[in-house]
Design brief:
This protein has 1 helix and 8 strands; from the N terminus they run H-E-E-E-E-E-E-E-E. By secondary structure, the protein is of the alpha+beta class. It has an 8-stranded antiparallel β-barrel with strand order 1-2-3-4-5-6-7-8. A hairpin with a 5-residue loop joins strand 2 and strand 3. The longest helix is centred in the first third of the chain and has 40 residues. The protein is elongated, with a radius of gyration of 29 Å.
Length: 184
């Protein structure tokens, strides 16, 4: 039967229809699996639309910082400048923080405020913060202003709290950011 060239073309013609249906079915299944995987990856993304809590330790160090003593008021200082920090999550992920800070203190007690940008692998978060320092301990709050990447158009709040610090010349803080991205 295959020896006759006419039979070969008829055999190829009839075999191609089932092969074509099998390829189309395979492509549909592959596309469905791919789209399911994409949907799962988006849903599992740590910075997808919704609310996300970021908690980490922050080590900061002044880069270009000036402290000015106020005349005729013992212990009164006004300080401002640029600082840099490294954020470390419990799972080992890291980020960096660049920020400006101003403070007004009397004998180590007073207020501070500033603007910071955290940069993580997924994107960045810019926030304003304000707080107070008393007895060497800082406490404050963040207001998230914007973000980029996975944090694009972010809003939210956060807290700043001093952590026990065995190091000299740096600050050690506990940071908690509640980040809301569009879609919530």
């Amino acid at each position: 039967m295959l020896g006759n060239p006419g039979n070969v073309s008829r055999w190829r013609g009839t075999a191609s229809i089932p092969d074509q249906q099998t390829q189309e079915e395979h492509m549909r299944k592959s596309l469905a699996v791919f789209l399911s995987g994409v949907a799962l990856a988006i849903a599992a993304s740590p910075a997808s639309a919704g609310e996300q809590v970021l908690e980490f330790k922050l080590v900061t160090k002044p880069i270009d910082f000036k402290i000015t003593e106020v005349a005729n008021i013992e212990g009164q200082t006004v300080a401002s400048g640029k600082l840099f920090g490294v954020a470390v999550f419990k799972d080992g992920r890291m980020g960096v923080k660049e920020f400006v800070n101003s403070s007004d203190t009397l004998k180590g007690t007073g207020s501070f405020f500033g603007y910071s940008t955290y940069t993580f692998e997924e994107g960045s978060i810019t926030a304003r913060y304000a707080g107070s320092v008393k007895d060497g301990r800082s406490n404050g709050e963040y207001t998230i202003l914007s973000g980029t990447g996975a944090y694009a158009n972010a809003t939210g709040t956060g807290t700043i709290e001093s952590a026990p610090n065995p190091f000299k010349g740096v600050n050690l803080l506990n940071i908690k950011l509640v980040v809301r991205t569009p879609g919530t």
